[in-house]
Amino acid sequence: MEITRPTSLSEALDARAQDPGADLLAGGTDLMVEVNFGLAKPEHVIALRRIDEIGEVEDRRIGAGVTWARLEESDHRALAQLSRTVGSPQIRAAGTIGGNIGTASPAGDGLPWLAAVDAEIEVASQARGTRRLRWDEFFTGVKRNALEPDEVIVAAVLPERVPSNQHFAKIGQRSAMVISTVSAVVVRDDDGSVRVALGSVAPTPIRALAAEQLINENPQPTDEVLAEFARTVSAEVTPITDHRSTESYRRHAAGVLARRLLERCLAS
Question: Does this model's pTM top 0.85?
């Protein structure tokens, strides 16, 4: 196996252009699992850890190489909350938000937050330079994304304003170090508008748009409205039955989890 270790983004893009089939390696918490189970046998790996340009956090940019351990201290409450649930401390020290984005698993813990805040994914290639895609343009299916073979994920780019009133939670088969059965993020802006995003309940992270409309029309919801909000979320998701959960449980849990997070936002 050949390993290329670029120390700058331009070097990484050169390597990617020369071999678009090469596997990108950040923290290795996804790729190395597949290697260990014999599911992947990469011939060429481009290791990205030495690239400082993708390891920075700015006001509106989170570099693809930023680890979950660093994001545990994020000023964005829900991002910090979800970061603390990602695997073990060792996984959080190695795993990166860019790896989570690139893997594009429906259960990716960071993806509902990106959806809730309407983030864009910045990617770059040697041939075409930099481009940005909205989160719902980037995630195209189960472990599928819009990244071209010669591109590298550079950063998650946030809008000018991100509501500070935000909460994350997930449900899993254990209380720690668990892949989510259902995950959710609810954010509430200063004007009372609410956004609801969920993971593990569809092929990609989703926004519960009908539930958002319902609650935005009722900014001071009664118990009846909150119950209808939960039912609406449950109706919007399209989960599957697998080894972690049944479709019916995921559907029910999505509504319960979204309502709990909304109530936390309303109480903040």
Answer: yes
